[in-house]
Amino acid sequence: MSLVLDPAAQDLLFREARTANAFTDEPVTEEQVQAIYDLVKYGPTAFNQSPLRITLVRSAEARERLVQHMAEGNQPKTASAPLVAILSADNEFHEELPALLPHFPQAKDLFFAERPAREGAAALNAALQAAYFIIGVRAAGLAAGPMTGFDFAGVQKEFLDGDHTPLMVVNIGRPAENAWFPRSPRLEADQVITTV
């Protein structure tokens, strides 16, 4: 094997990791969330734009409001997960570019002055960061249950604003017994990789 990452870490992050559908009631601490963010914030984005925003749903009242917007099959998962995160793309990310890209502060106006350009860039790069976030949750020894089965407009209205586009809801915690569905097949390398 030509990977330098320890096989146990490979299993933790990729091979054995699955989308969790049930969790124990062990809480997810603020320290764990901070550790996850401190790891995944280094993932690359175009122009270092870092448009992902994370809304943590901890209170019972906020949880009830969120569950109402989840697809029926996702409601019990979100209602019972120790922590739920709403991941969204900040379409006004360009306001942070002078600080995030100090060697090229003019990128803010040169490339991202128009809202449609920002929305496209934010969606792509925040989705990339969302993938890092899921890997970070796994690196913390927790399980993630990312879902897109929800009322996007309802979640945006309830928890975000017009400048933030919801991407996914992620249930987070320690997996309960029988938390996983059977693993679905994956494509082989020759079905995905083309050399030209």
Strand numbers in spatial order across the main sheet: 1-2-4-3
What is the global morphology?
globular
Low-confidence stretches: none
End-to-end C-alpha gap: 25 Å
Q: How many DSSP-defined strands?
A: 4
Helix content: 40-55%
- Derived from helix and strand composition plus strand pairing, the structural class reads alpha+beta
Helix count equals 9
SSE run: HHEHHEHHHEHEH
Strand content: 5-15%
Sheet with most strands: 4 strands, antiparallel
Please tell me how large the radius of gyration is: 18 Å
Mean pLDDT: 96
What distinguishing features does this structure have?
single chain, 196 residues, alpha+beta, 41% helix, 15% strand
Question: Would you mind describing this structure in some detail?
Answer:
This protein has helices at 7-15, 30-40, 60-67, 75-80, 97-100, 107-112, 115-139, 152-159, 189-192, and strands at residues 52-57, 83-90, 143-147, 164-173. The mean pLDDT is 96. Helix 1 packs across helix 7 and helix 2 (30-40) crosses helix 7 (115-139). It has nine helices and four strands; from the N terminus they run H-H-E-H-H-E-H-H-H-E-H-E-H. Strands 1-2-4-3 form a four-stranded antiparallel beta sheet. The radius of gyration is 18 Å and the shape is globular. The chain is α+β, with helices and mostly antiparallel strands.
Write the layout of secondary structure elements.
Elements: H1 7-15, H2 30-40, E1 52-57, H3 60-67, H4 75-80, E2 83-90, H5 97-100, H6 107-112, H7 115-139, E3 143-147, H8 152-159, E4 164-173, H9 189-192
Antiparallel strand pairs: 1-2, 2-4, 3-4
Helix pairs in contact: 1-7, 2-7
